Amino acid sequence: MQIAGFEKNSLLDYPGHIAAVVFVPGCNMDCWYCHNRSLWRAKSFFHQSYVFDYLEKRRGFLDGVVISGGEPTLQKDVGDFIRRVRGMGFLTKLDTNGLKPDVVELLLPDIDYVAMDIKAPPGALKKVVSTDTDDAPIWRTARLLMESGVDYEFRTTFMPMLTAEDIGVIAQSVRGAKRYVVQQYRKAEGAAFQPEPHSAETVKKAAEAARKYISEVTVRGL
User: Fold this and answer.
1) Contact of 142 with 180, CB cutoff 8 Å
2) HEC states along 84-152?
3) Per-position pLDDT tens, the chain of length 222
4) CA of 117: how far to CAs of 49, 120, 183, in Å?
5) Which of 125, 168, 174, 192 is the most exposed place for a label (fewest CB within 10 A)?
6) What is the tally of structural domains in the chain?
7) How many CB atoms lie within 10 A of CB 189?
């Protein structure tokens, strides 16, 4: 598995745990506001031995390892990497955009937590990404997670072109989900298009719209 970036300690990426974060290159979406663009377009990589040597030394201090990106499900041997990490006694968390439900299903037996991005309401993905992508696989992955028994969260970056009503529609589409996170949009350095984020009041209004359908709704980034 190619590793484009490695964060040795994070208190933010795995809820309730101290984790290392492994970033892979490559993505099947092109989000103009992506803050990891330099990573998913990387041409030079860490050796896996560097990562595993570090993890070996941090047993007892780190709780888990997050596999993020880019999009991890595009890496053909991501399952082998995850199984090795778990075999070392670490919890495993997968960050995914949900476009590869078949891959997610294969990985689930070795995953402890999944954070899945739902970027827009059904059929409206073009509002927030730069490519015309069929979003049907995203909703299949969402249903798969809801029925899997694996711990998970759905999360939406509240883009300026989305409304509080859009957040409500997303939440309704995964009604009864375990956990939903509304993330405040932050301008991406170097992006040609940098609209202003929603006000804190609007973000909170969006979270309230989601709570009609999901009991655990949190806000990040305010």
Assistant:
1) no
2) HHHHCCCEEEEEECCCCHHHHHHHHHHCCEEEEECCCCCCCHHHCCCCCCCCHHHHHHHHHHHCCCCEE
3) 999 999 999 999 999 999 999 999 988 887 767 766 666 666 668 899 999 999 999 999 999 999 998 899 999 999 999 999 999 999 999 999 999 999 999 999 999 999 999 999 999 998 888 777 899 999 999 999 999 999 999 999 999 999 999 999 999 999 999 999 999 998 777 666 788 999 999 999 999 999 999 999 999 998
4) 30, 9, 10
5) 192
6) 1
7) 9
Phi, then psi, of 200 in degrees rounded to 5:
-60, -35
Residue positions counted in the chain: 222
Identify whether 5 is preceded by a cis peptide bond (ω within 30 of 0): no
- The helix (H) or strand (E) run that includes residue 201 is helix 200-210
DSSP codes of every residue in 4-34: -EEEEEESSSSTTS-EEEEE----S---TT-
Phi/psi for 214 (5° steps) reads -135, 130
- In terms of residue numbers, what domain contains 211? 5-220
Q: Would you state the structure tokens that stand for residue 33, as one six-digit string?
A: 């506001």
Q: Which residue has the tokens 């103009």?
A: 32
CATH number at residue 11: 3.20.20.70
